[in-house]
Structures are given as C-alpha cells and as structure tokens.
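Q: what does this look like with flavin mononucleotide bound?
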Amino acid sequence: MLSIVYSSKATEAFEEAHLVDVLLRSRRNNRRLALSGMLIYRDGYFLQAIEGPEAELRERMTRIAADPRHSDIAVLLEETIDERMFPAWTMGFQETDAQAGDPAPGLQAVFDDIAAGRDPVETVPSLREVIRRFQSDSR
Ligand SMILES: Cc1cc2nc3c(=O)[nH]c(=O)nc-3n(C[C@H](O)[C@H](O)[C@H](O)COP(=O)(O)O)c2cc1C
C-alpha cells in the first residue's frame, strides 16, 4: 500500500458548505476504493494523509489535485506502508484555527511552514507527530 501526505491552500471562494461536500464525497469514494486517512483544515490550508492500494490512490490523487476548491498542492511525504495508519477512518476530519491553540504538538509549526511554502523536509518531524496524534485518536 501507498501513503501520501500533502498540503494545499483552499481557494478564495472556499466556504463551510464545501467542506461538507468534500467530506461526504471523500468518505463515499474512499470506502469504495479502500482508501483511508485524515484531513485537517486550519485557517485556509489543508493537510491530508491518504493511504491504500497504490493504483487507486494515485488515480484519486490526480482527481483531488485537479479540484478547483484548492491549489498549491505540495506532497510532503510519500511512502509504501505494510499497515494502515488510519484503519478506522474513510476520512477523519478536524477543523482548527490558530485561536484554538495547538491541539497536537507541532501542528501550528506545520501549518506555518505550509503557509510560508517552506521546505517540507524541515516540517517532517512535526508532521509525523501530528499524524501520530491523529492515528491514536482513530483507534
Ligand atoms: C482538500 C480536499 C481533499 C479531498 N479528499 C478527497 C478524498 O480523500 N477522496 C475523494 O474521493 N475525494 C476527495 N476530494 C474531492 C475530490 O477532489 C473530488 O471532488 C472527488 O473525488 C470527485 O468525486 P466523484 O468522482 O464522486 O465526482 C478532496 C477535495 C479536497 C478539496
């Protein structure tokens, strides 16, 4: 199986109603395609981890990347995995903002790097911590 973590920027017209549509669609498609993962929306930026059979995942990523509701898609991690990180979630979701503080260690730092377009290499340790935190919530 393959696991991809990417960030993106919500386009200007992005509204709350879009989130509902994205989640409903994602969960329906992901169940059918045996994909799982998590999505965080914070102050106009997305962080998504998505995993599953490689062919299905790559095909779905092409569609996701073409979605006009977001732009600036940057793949932060891509690796083969033996076991799912989010077995229980067709797409776990959390919305946070800076005012809500830092729900997972390093989350703010990760989103700061995303917003600044900084080299994801520096973000990776914090990113793994954020994913671990969500992972434990999904079990
Ligand atoms: C941030 C973001 C994350 C998304 N994640 C997924 C996803 O995990 N799975 C999925 O099928 N669609 C996801 N989508 C929606 C796709 O871009 C696209 O609208 C959808 O896959 C098309 O579904 P359809 O084939 O049913 O028309 C996401 C969209 C956005 C903006």
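Residues 112 and 118 are 8 Å apart (CA to CA). The longest helix spans residues 120-138.
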